[in-house]
Amino acid sequence: MSAAWAMVRHRFASFAGTFVAVALGVAVLAASATLQLSSKPQAPARYDAAPLLVLPPETGTNDYGEPERPNWTPSEATDLAGKLTSLPGVTAAVPDPSFYIQRLIDGKATGDPQASRINGHAWSSAALGGYQLAAGRPPTKAGEVAAAGTTPGERIEVLTARGPETWTVTGTVIDNGHHAGFFVADSVAFARASGVPLIGLTLTGDDGWVAAAARALIGPAGVVLAGADRDQLEPGSVSRIRWIGAQLLIVLVALGAFATVFVVSSTCALSAAQRRRELGLLRAVGATPGQVRRMMYAETTLIALFAGVIGAPIGALFAPLLADPMVETGLEPPGFAATWQPLALAGAVLVGLFAALAGVVVAARRASRISPLDALRESAADPRPMPPSRWVTGIASAAAGGALLAVMPSLSNASKTTAGLGAAMLLITAAALLSPVLIVPIVRLLAAPWRNSATGMLVREGTLTGVRRVASTAAPVLATVGLTVLLTGMIATIEVASGIDEAAEYPVANLLVPLNTPGLSEAAVATQSGTSRLPTRVQVTVPTTTRGYDGAGLTGPESSPVGPAGGVGERPGSEAGAGAVLHADTAGELGVAAGATIALRFADGTRAELPVLAVDPNAEAPIVLPRALVRAHDPDALTDMVVLNGPATEAAGAESLPVATYVQREVDDEGRLVDLFLWAMISLSAGYTGIAVGNTLLMAVAARRAELRVLRLAGATRRQILGVLAAESLLAVGVGAVLGAAVAAISLLGIRAAVESELGQAVTLVIPWTAAAAVTTGCALIALVAAAVPTLHRPTGP
User: Fold this and answer.
1) Which of 185, 203, 226 is the last residue of a domain?
2) Do 611 and 710 have their domain in common?
3) ABC3 transporter permease C-terminal domain: from which residue to which, for each copy (predicted)?
4) Of the candidates 605, 638, 671, which is a domain's last residue?
5) Which terminus of the chain faces fewer neighbouring Cβ atoms within 10 Å, N or C?
6) Is there a single domain that holds both residue 5 and residue 21?
């Protein structure tokens, strides 16, 4: 360790690339981990005064991995709440039905569309959030509402699942700084909501004792949440925002760790090559191969720990600055703030250390094989730049990448994108491994215009002599340009193909779609000439299992409801004359066929047995039901869109769009987050590429001081030497850019062929040369600075 410490102290400049790479990696890791650990689920503020919350039991998980909990019917919830109220220490047990509502101002829906899905509440549930009236009285009948920011007696326009309505404000709610929503009479909330998903308890007794008593009372009929467990009730729309943000942070962490390994590996490899005589001397005076390896590990450990101590606080300081941009871009929910997370800093330092050690493994192994005789050798030419192992690995990678591109059109749709990325990565790896061979013809081609000048000759021959040095500079440029062109081109090409594919699904010219709302109301749909489907969620029970499925209500001859709703918010439990059509996959999972009977539990909690009318492999949804039946049991459901077969009728919360415009909007909305992820990756990759290129050139130029003195003795001026170094640097960057762009273009051609075979029509290939030029220009500027700094800093005189 003492020898390693002496090396680090006296030759710190040669470790600068490793230091900067690890420091940047640790800073990225620390900031990402701080943001991730700060992003914790939170129970909605409207339950702040309810220490205990009771939910229906789970029946499985949905497609997002979230617990599936069928709602209670109003009568089930009311009965259970009555039992819970009888427990000592419980002041109230309040069912909390929620329904969709948005306020209309000048005919336009306002507020957050997703949050509005659960914006309507029963007045009794105001106690769960500690909400009180500042003025007026509670609502007691249909058409009355209490809300914050309103005045008693005021008439307001609202939009619900039924359509636009005008309500009278009876009370002004004090919302305690949170959006409390709209409160209506309990009977109205029960009638408008699709069942009851929760019962909240307000207490005077000990939380723990009451929770245990509640669990003993209800048994398997419900789940009692207390303390931090209440955070499970964070709305799904908010949880998905956190999930999206987490994916970006995970990508940044993984990319930061990988790039750190990559830069440290290339830096240590070049350093070991330049230190052959030094390491040979150590071997000559008795150092064993194991001691050489341990010395390099110790050097890297010292540099990594020093860099980690610097990088971790920088990341922690930057994390709060990133919180607001993440909220603004939809990667974190409103109100998110980064907090002090010491565990994140410690973890970042450790990960940075392990990444650095992983990067030095190969270089340390090679260094340990240096012979003592290397101390007596001095050669300007690179010794054997292409060992047999590099040949074999490079050719195998190229063959595997080419084979993947060849078979890609025959793969399943789900596998094509993965195969395309895999093929590109293999080809990039092959190009990097074979670059010492590929560099020679490319250098001769690029340098041909200046072959008759003295500077051109020096640049060409110096580059061809130092193939390993050029390959070390070109490799990170190759990878970055290749990935930039590949990813941006692939996404742009797929977006074009997605637009073609999605537009083909609509054989009409126009659609009626939501306008700043989560869906279309029944009134908006009823006035249109066209077709639509009403989405819902149902639980299907067969003798051995219960599963949740997406359902769709379609208009058909058997769509009329069976009878009027019975009781307050109650709906029929038997649906004589109605039936279900199952998708073939659904029927296979349930093990049923046409003519069988299935037991359904609807969104409102009611149960019914329905016959299976047919099994259709082209069904609109896993379970297709009459629209009126879905509406009867899911009064809060909203329609996604109407496929118009005539002129659109104006409706609140809706707009008519040409199919092409709608498809482009959908593609753009999906592409926004993809582009954000993409440019975050490209920016971080470009940063590491700059470090790798700059460090490689700094080390290379510093090691060529003797060569530069010879040029001065031969009569070259400082300006001419700078010109030679600049030209060599630009040539190395150009080689990497050419190889990267070529590999990416080949991969994109294969991806386009696969997409065309899937769609059965031609697709435009999009190659983002602008992005490639921007990355290449950035690398070139860094290379020029890195080549010039050592020359300007140190005298090159004889």
Assistant:
1) 226
2) no
3) 251-372, 681-793
4) 638
5) C
6) yes
Phi, psi of 165 (to 5 degrees): -140, 160
Residue 113's CB: how many other CB atoms inside 10 A? 18
- Other CB atoms within a 10 A radius of the CB of residue 747 amount to 28
Specify the pLDDT at position 570: 37
CA angle 729, 734, 736 (to 5 degrees): 100
Per-residue pLDDT of 710-768, as tens digits, reads 777 777 777 888 888 888 888 888 888 999 888 888 888 888 887 777 766 777 777 88
Look at residues 433, 484, 392 and name the one whose alpha carbon lies nearest to residue 266.
433
Asked if residues 453 and 715 have their Cβ atoms less than 8 Å apart, the reply is no
Q: Which residues contact 742 (CB under 8 A, 6 or more apart)?
A: 431
Q: Measuring CA to CA, how many Å separate 540 from each of 196, 551, 570, 787?
A: 19, 11, 20, 69
- E-strand stretches of 84-222: 90-95, 98-99, 101-105, 108-109, 120-122, 132-136, 144-147, 155-160, 164-174, 182-184, 199-203
171: phi then psi, degrees, rounded to nearest 5? -155, 150
Question: Could you tell me the strand order of the sheet in which 199-203 lies?
Answer: 90-95, 199-203, 52-55, 223-226
Q: For the chain, how many structural domains are there in total? A: 4
Instruction: List Cβ neighbours of 171 (8 Å cut-off, separation of 6 or more).
Output: 133, 135, 136, 137, 138, 139, 146, 152, 183
Cβ atoms within 10 Å of 282's Cβ, excluding its own:
19
**Per-residue DSSP letter, 161:** S
At residue 624, the 3 state secondary structure works out as strand
Taking the alpha carbons of 504, 508, 509, 510 in that order, is the dihedral positive or negative? negative
Q: Residues 247, 189: one domain?
A: no
pLDDT of res. 9: 65
Longest CA pairwise span in the chain (Å): 104
Half-sphere exposure for 505 (CA within 13 Å, toward CB): 10
Take residue 420 and report the two structure tokens written for it. 């395309």
CA–CA separation, 421 and 645 (whole Å): 41
Tell me how far apart the alpha carbons of residues 310 and 312 are, in angstroms, rounded to a whole number. 6
Encoding tokens for residue 466?
Answer: 């130092």
Q: Are residues 330 and 266 in the same domain?
A: yes
- Is there a single domain that holds both residue 55 and residue 16? no
Please say whether the beta carbons of 300 and 4 come within 8 A. no
Could you tell me if 543 and 431 lie in one domain? no
pLDDT reported for residue 450: 74
Torsion angle (degrees, nearest 10) of CA 691, 694, 700, 706: -140
Instruction: Tell me the per-residue pLDDT of 19-55, one tens digit each, with 9 for 90 and over.
Output: 887 888 888 889 888 988 888 888 888 899 999 999 9
With 90 as the cut, is the pLDDT of residue 568 above it? no
Alpha carbons 706 and 700: distance in angstroms, whole number: 12
Please indicate, yes or no, if residue 461 is contained in any of the structural domains. yes
pLDDT band at 131 (very low <50, low <70, confident <90, very high): very high
- Residue 294 in domain: yes
The answer, yes or no, to whether residue 305 has pLDDT greater than 80, is yes
Residue range 637-670, pLDDT digits in tens: 999 999 888 888 999 999 998 887 887 777 677 6
Assess contact for 130 and 174: CB atoms under 8 A.
no
User: Does residue 523 lie within any of the structural domains?
Assistant: no
Q: Which domain holds residue 579?
A: 534-638
Domain match, 464 and 498 both: yes
For residues 688 and 695, what is the distance between their CA atoms, to the nearest angstrom?
Answer: 10
Predicted TM-score of the model (pTM): 0.73
What SS3 class is residue 573? Answer: coil
203 shares its domain with 311: no
With b for 16 or more beta-carbon neighbours within 10 A and e for fewer, the 49-77 pattern comes to: bbbbbbbbeebeeeeeeeebbbbbbbbbb
User: What is the distance between the alpha carbons of residues 320 and 340, in angstroms, rounded to a whole number?
Assistant: 9
The position carrying tokens 């205990």 is 52
pLDDT at residue 500 above 80?
A: no
Stretch 618-628: mean pLDDT: 92
> Which H/E stretch holds residue 525?
helix 522-526
